[in-house]
Amino acid sequence: MSDIETFYDVMRRQGITRRSFMKFCSLTAAALGLGPSFVPKIAEAMETKPRTPVVWVHGLECTCCSESFIRSAHPLAKDVVLSMISLDYDDTLMAAAGHAAEAAFEETIAKYKGNYILAVEGNPPLNEDGMFCITGGKPFVEKLRHAAEGAKAIISWGACASYGCVQAAAPNPTRATPVHKVITDKPIIKVPGCPPIAEVMTGVITYMLTFDRMPELDRQGRPAMFYSQRIHDKCYRRPHFDAGQFVEHWDDENARKGYCLYKMGCKGPTTYNACSTVRWNGGVSFPIQSGHGCIGCSEDGFWDQGSFYDRLTTIKQFGIEATADKIGWTATGLVGAGVAAHAAVSVLKRAQKKNEEA
Amino acid sequence: MKGVSDERINAPVRGPDEIFEASRLTGDATREDLESIRRRTSVYVYEAPVRVWHWVNALAITILVVTGYLIASPLPSMQIGEATDQFVMGYIRFAHFAAGVVMSVGFFGRIYWAFVGNRHAWQMFYIPIFNKRYWKEFVFELRWYFFLEEEPKKYIGHNPLAHAAMFTFITLGITFMMITGWALYAEGAGQGGVTDSLFGWVLGYVQNSQRLHTLHHLGMWAIVIFAIIHIYAAVREDVMSRQSMVSTMISGHRTFKDDRIE
């Protein structure tokens, strides 16, 4: 891999000053929750380590992950990230197209066998032998399997690759399948979200390059540093939740005061993501801050939980769509009525018996 | 009843006129009353720890259902003070968690008592599904509830129907609510903590926290429905069956209203 420049070489070549470089290292350390002592380590790693080749493939997806990724502010994707990793193949971003692009793909996975990171955006549909998603003239699932074979690790970008997202929502006609259910013999990091936060994406990559290992993952295989807490746990509106002060209707007085959106169906209490801490667009805002509840886009099967404005999952097994509360009240009412009727019959029966005896 | 023959039980040792002086002194005792209290006896069924558990559990479940419902569908917004001075949801959630801990500890105490207590303490924790006789009696009790039997049978512990309900809604139901409840608590307590290491796997299995909340919520409704039926059946049986019900869970003694054999 000696022919790949180090990150530092690339950055200097692109006119980034050492001062800016050190600033980036500090910001990255802070973003990863590391102490100041890690800044020189990050700097050293970037000065000495050859860039890790990354092969970025696109299955069934909407490219929102890429759109998010290229908007990373810390670090700026343009200046640093596209140079940090040696992004040898990304059919959406690369200049080459057609046969040239496919040749680059084959070359990279042959040359860096066992050393490259495979980033997957979107997922493969498995029905009809994968014919619902064709890239380079072949079903995407074949390309995915081929690319995964020599990969050191796989990053599942976004809800599509991690959980299936909208194309896997019931009834899932194309049988869109998340990456970890197709590739089972490689370490996989899920970075869910629709899309994931830009800084989370670059943060995960930076961590892997700096420490040459996977970040600590939680039980669902997500990087714990970004996905270990619910949005609700760190929400700036949380004090209003604890106080019992809620937005009752859109645009009411409480909404203007910035009260908790719990009653409006905010899914912050059931969603693991870093939105309330890292926020979006360089830390400008996030959905709750702009007055709308979280829709839980980084959760498993978020399209299949019913309305974005309900906090309980819709239960379809009852024929009509119902929530747990509707079922509960109905069943309780029926049982209550049943008990009352039974009691009435019991009393009548007893009276009848007494009459007969008398 | 070893060594005591039927003859001995039924044979009057002394006539009713000669005994129960205290009962007769109140002046309302008829001859039939005296004859009756001479023969009717009680069985000690529910020992003190079982009774204490029952009422503590009932109180905990009441608090859990009310606060749990209010956590899912909070009270109207209140403007007592600034958010920093007001803690309505906080106290409701605290009451829920505290009652949850009490219920969990109580349930473990109850399991312990199933091993060291009397035979009746064990009844709630199993259903004799392979016992044909059990199912026959189950059907009989069901028929009694459908008004198809003239008279119920005598039971010392739970009747077969109550036995099944108790096992399903309390033993399994509370276990389900404890597991999902503690898993939800672990989410707030944070990863790496004690509750997370014990119950974090539940969210890993269910995958989506909203689904987990929904399951816990459905469990609440199951227990509410059980409570309605339980209270109704206890009062009804107290009135219509051949043994005591409500007072049994206070005194522990099951008393019988007649001395017929079946």
Automatic annotation (TrEMBL), chain B:
One of the GO biological process terms: respiratory electron transport chain
Membrane topology reported for the UniProt record: Multi-pass membrane protein
Keywords: Cell membrane, Electron transport, Heme, Iron, Membrane, Metal-binding, Transmembrane, Transmembrane helix, Transport
One Pfam family from the record: Ni_hydr_CYTB
InterPro entries: Cyt_b561_bac/Ni-Hgenase (IPR011577), Di-haem_cyt_TM (IPR016174), Hydrogenase_cytochrome (IPR051542), Ni-dep_Hydgase_cyt-B (IPR000516)
Protein name in UniProt: Probable Ni/Fe-hydrogenase B-type cytochrome subunit
Entries under NCBIfam families matching the protein: CytB-hydogenase
Domain spans labelled Cytochrome b561 bacterial/Ni-hydrogenase: 45-252
One GO CC term on file: plasma membrane
Top-rank lineage group of the source organism: Bacteria
Subcellular localization(s) per the UniProt record: Cell membrane
Species the sequence originates in: Rhodobacter capsulatus (Rhodopseudomonas capsulata)
Keyword Transmembrane helix belongs to the record: yes
Keyword set includes Electron transport: yes
Family that this chain belongs to: Belongs to the HupC/HyaC/HydC family.
GO molecular function: electron transfer activity; heme binding; iron ion binding
